[in-house]
Design a protein that fits this description.
heterodimer; A: 2 domains; four-stranded antiparallel beta sheet; 27% strand; B: MetI-like fold; 72% helix; flat
Chain lengths: 259, 287
């Protein structure tokens, strides 16, 4: 039980500044966040609140101006397989089949081919794409592409999956199905997920904890533990209570800014 | 230069195939439909050419039948039995070897150079401005200099082919390398593929469509340039016989040579396209 209290990810005073027309803009200011192993954390906020910046720093694509980002107590230095990113625009390799896309990580790390095949088969099955194993990305629908992207980071032994509005480009039906599938995979594999979204409903439906961020400068506003039992009913009254509360927190910033 | 846009606009041209036939034709006729449509225009040109020239004593342009007979004689002999009879294969082979030799050399230099210019900022800063200045110089303007450096003869022709094929291959390779979606580098590095491995597993495959466009254009230019290259001081080659025939006022040989060049260039383009189609099956822009 002690494992649950060890943070897999810890951000301390994380600040990211950009130069813009000679001005310094704080894309992210003094963000503090602990994520425990196996936790599903959603970041929500309006655009410009720094949620994607935070995610990209954790992924190692960008470096913080100040503060520290620690994974298992060790500073994050650049991208690495333990932190897998799922992009909104998929980022699949168009010249590789579904099978080869999923096997890209293991084969890059020089795993023996028999092991790669086993891994790939397992994760193709996990995301239900057996029939499309040899298809190329351009032959797949958006939902299928995103399944491949998820399988790709899982096949590469990612401990924490970073998702940047992964279902934002999908239609509502596909989106709901993928949310269910993601929860199912998360529960079966004991992954840690850091999930960026601008949909309050999506955040409450998925997360153990919702982190509310606010823009100008981007920072973490507040956090809320979601204790509703899963599977969650998006039209239940307690679900709506949380939705109202989060909506209030999100919109209070707009009101404050407008005033 | 824009590979994607060019291939991207191509598919609608083929959609005539999809048009449903009013009455179902046998499949082999269906398959012949497109080539038949493609042959209509050249056929019309030949008919016009025939009526414009046939039976006119002082026509400087020979009728198509003369050209056909001459082509037959150049290929198989037995009609005129002159200096040109049964020599077509010699000239064709000579031109082919120069085209493909010069083209291969151009690829051998332009591909690695393009990859480096596209990928390494220092090499780009070092070489790109020079190439930008050299590029507008027409290949034919190099001819005198080539003859001084390589002497009169086939080596100058090969050099010109090299130059003609070099720039399209180089420019498209650079373009391909530079337009790789940055997202793919992020994806590769988070999956554990970094440094030089990224070059082979991301840059190279991602720029392959643009590289193939360059190869097609380069080979096309190679066929354009070979004729110019063979027109001075070369004994064999399609360009050489065209030049020689011009001096002898054998216009039917000139036209015959032109037709052979057209067909040879067309076939070699088809070979590159076929290769590209096999290698780029993954590409949504693939024709």
């Amino acid at each position: 039980m002690s494992e649950a209290t060890v943070p897999i990810l810890e951000l301390k005073g994380l600040t990211k500044q950009f130069e813009f027309n000679g001005d310094r803009i704080d894309a992210l200011r003094d963000a503090n966040l602990r994520v425990n192993k196996g936790e599903f954390v959603c970041l929500i906020g309006a655009s410009g609140c720094g949620k994607s910046t935070l995610l990209r720093i954790v992924a190692g694509f960008e470096t913080a101006t100040r503060g520290s980002a620690l994974m298992w107590d060790r500073p994050i230095e650049g991208p690495a397989p333990d932190r897998g990113m799922v992009f909104q625009d998929y980022g699949l390799f168009p010249w590789l089949s579904v099978r080869k896309n999923i096997g890209f990580g293991p084969s890059s790390r020089g795993r023996p081919s028999a092991e790669i095949k086993d891994t790939v088969d397992r994760f193709i099955e996990l995301v239900g794409l057996q029939r499309f194993a040899d298809a190329y990305p351009h032959q797949l629908s958006g939902g299928m592409k995103q399944r491949v992207a998820i399988a790709r980071v899982l096949a590469n032994d990612a401990e924490i999956v970073l998702m940047d509005e992964p279902f934002g480009a999908l239609d509502a039906m596909t989106r709901e199905r993928l949310q269910d599938e993601l929860l199912d995979i998360w529960q079966r594999t004991g992954l840690t997920v850091l999930f960026v979204t601008h949909s309050i409903e999506e955040a409450i439906f998925l997360a153990d904890r919702v982190v509310v961020m606010s823009p100008g400068p981007g920072r973490i506003d507040s956090q809320m533990q979601i204790t509703l039992p899963r599977p969650r009913d998006v039209v239940a009254s307690d679900f709506n209570d949380i939705r109202r509360e989060l909506s209030l927190r999100l919109h209070s910033h707009h009101a404050r800014k407008a005033a | 230069m824009n590979a994607g846009a060019e291939t991207g606009t191509a598919p609608p041209l083929n959609e005539t195939q999809a048009a449903p036939a009013p009455r179902a034709l046998p499949p082999f006729i269906q398959r012949l439909k497109n080539p038949a449509i493609a042959a209509l225009f050249p056929l019309a040109v030949v008919v016009f050419w025939h009526f414009a020239t046939y039976g006119r004593k002082f026509s400087l342009i020979p009728p198509p039948s003369d050209v056909a007979i001459e082509l037959y004689d150049m290929a198989f002999g037995g009609v005129w039995d002159d200096a040109f009879s049964q020599t077509l294969h010699i000239h064709l082979l000579a031109s082919l070897s120069r085209v493909y030799g010069g083209f291969a050399m151009a690829c051998a230099v332009a591909l690695p150079l393009g990859l480096m210019i596209g990928r390494l900022p220092f090499v780009r800063q070092l070489l790109d401005p020079t190439f930008q200045v050299l590029r507008p110089i027409p290949v034919t303007a190099w001819l005198p200099l080539a003859m001084i450096i390589f002497g009169l003869g086939p080596r100058s022709a090969v050099f010109l082919v090299f130059l003609g094929a070099f720039y399209p291959v180089l420019i498209n390779t650079i373009f391909g390398v530079r337009s790789v979606d940055p997202r793919l580098f992020e994806a590769a590095s988070m999956l554990g593929c970094e440094g030089t491995a990224q070059f082979f597993k991301v840059v190279l495959p991602a720029s392959l469509p643009a590289i193939f466009t360059g190869l097609r254009l380069g080979l096309g230019f190679a066929w354009v340039v070979i004729v110019v290259g063979e027109m001075t001081g070369v004994q064999t080659g399609l360009g050489a016989i065209i030049m020689e025939a011009r001096q002898l006022s054998r216009t039917e040989i000139v036209i015959g040579g032109m037709i052979v060049i057209g067909i040879a260039g067309f076939i070699s383009d088809r070979i590159v396209m076929w290769l590209g189609r096999r290698l780029l099956r993954w590409s949504p822009n693939n024709v």
